[in-house]
DNA sequence: AGGGTTATTTACCGTCTAGTACAAATTTAT
DNA sequence: ATAAATTTGTACTAGACGGTAAATAACCCT
């Protein structure tokens, strides 16, 4: 049988932890964007040399994509948990308040790497730009599907437009990412969340 | 008396129009961001060589800042005109509908260069990043001042929170820039504008 | 102890980057 | 005509970029 472990038991063991190195890479990409991040930035932050980076993660592009995967699977991620709230209103509520808390959190760079990692960028970043764009669009599609379900469940009126509700919420969430970059605090974003919810049917 | 014209009447005349060249530069920066734009990208789009660019605009950073000035003074700019509408609600209305039309306009890159020109970027872009951040914050301050005035005018209730209203509007406007990058149409953004206005006191 | 395997280090590659020196070209003023 | 002023095109610089070759080091298994 073939062994599928990612840490083989032969050869010299890796001197660094891949996950913490990936966290460091994520932080740099988050702060500087894909184009603005150099390999020197990465190796310095990750505490490894270039050949180690390439052996472990492929290249800059693949490293970025893996960092984004990590980002979305982190325990402090709020998007997927919010989707599971029992009513559409509670989904919106948890998503907005979660974003308010998370995006201005000083424990990491402000905003959202999926929004600001490769928004306007060089041709060299085309692949990662598209990957991020897809994530944003898919997030909104998940919101929409959740609101369609809410209409079936009866906690949204049958007249509600799930697609527009999802896009409205997506717009505010993405706008909050910019606000956090502008220096807005969690409390200020919470107030925006509150206003946003006033337009939301309950 | 000293002549202050920018086109001196001695020496070889400039073979290109500075304003149209600046428009071309703006378009590239808008599409690729500051870090993602190379001097080759610029000279190619502007149809001039590097020494001409440096002689006319200083360097990459100064060229970017001049392109942003041009951007904000363009006739299709909607921000300042909307501020002059007679009531707070009409200000919000014109700003949101103007943004919906403008940001998804296929006649130029999608979104807003003030939002996406240098959001996450290298240290080399620190100056332009800060310049854009200041413009975003100042825009919101202008909105806030306009809403304070509206409270005095009586077209906003005295209980209204001008700062939060301005931040809410700013958040949606900046979110619309991301939405336009996501491929949202003007019609879809118009629907978001409509929802946004439902939370706005009138 | 030795062979196989993998990671690490150092040094390097070609290409692209922002920015410039310089000479030729084109204008106005005398 | 000629001098002064300015732009233009060509060619160049020094350094940073993403990425890699090759030798050495550290581990497991027999």
UniProtKB/TrEMBL annotation, chains A, B:
Coiled coil spans: none
Keywords per UniProt: DNA-binding, Transcription, Transcription regulation
Residue span(s) of domain HTH tetR-type: 15-75
Ranges of the DNA-binding region feature: 38-57
PROSITE patterns, A to Z: HTH_TETR_1 (PS01081), HTH_TETR_2 (PS50977)
InterPro entries: DNA-bd_HTH_TetR-type_CS (IPR023772), Homeodomain-like_sf (IPR009057), HTH_TetR (IPR001647), Tet_transcr_reg_TetR-rel_C_sf (IPR036271), TetR_C (IPR011075)
Name of the protein this chain belongs to: TetR/AcrR family transcriptional regulator
Native source species: Rheinheimera maricola
């Amino acid at each position: 049988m073939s062994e599928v472990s990612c840490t083989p038991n032969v050869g010299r063991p890796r001197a660094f932890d891949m996950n913490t190195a990936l966290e460091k890479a994520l932080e740099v990409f988050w702060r500087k964007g894909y184009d603005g991040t150099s390999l020197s930035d990465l190796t310095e932050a990750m505490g490894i040399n270039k050949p180690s980076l390439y052996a472990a993660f492929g290249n800059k592009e693949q490293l970025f994509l893996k960092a984004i995967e990590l980002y979305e699977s982190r325990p402090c991620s709020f998007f997927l948990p919010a989707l599971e709230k029992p009513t559409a209103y509670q989904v919106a509520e948890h998503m907005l308040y979660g974003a308010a808390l998370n995006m201005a959190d000083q424990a990491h760079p402000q905003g959202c790497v999926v929004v600001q990692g490769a928004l306007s960028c060089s041709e060299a970043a085309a692949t990662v730009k598209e990957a991020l764009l897809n994530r944003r669009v898919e997030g909104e599609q998940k919101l929409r599907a959740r609101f369609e379900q809410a209409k079936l469940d009866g906690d949204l009126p049958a007249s509600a437009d799930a697609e527009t509700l999802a896009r409205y919420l997506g717009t505010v969430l993405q706008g909050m990412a910019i606000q956090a970059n502008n220096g807005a605090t969690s409390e200020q974003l919470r107030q925006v969340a509150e206003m946003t919810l006033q337009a939301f049917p309950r």
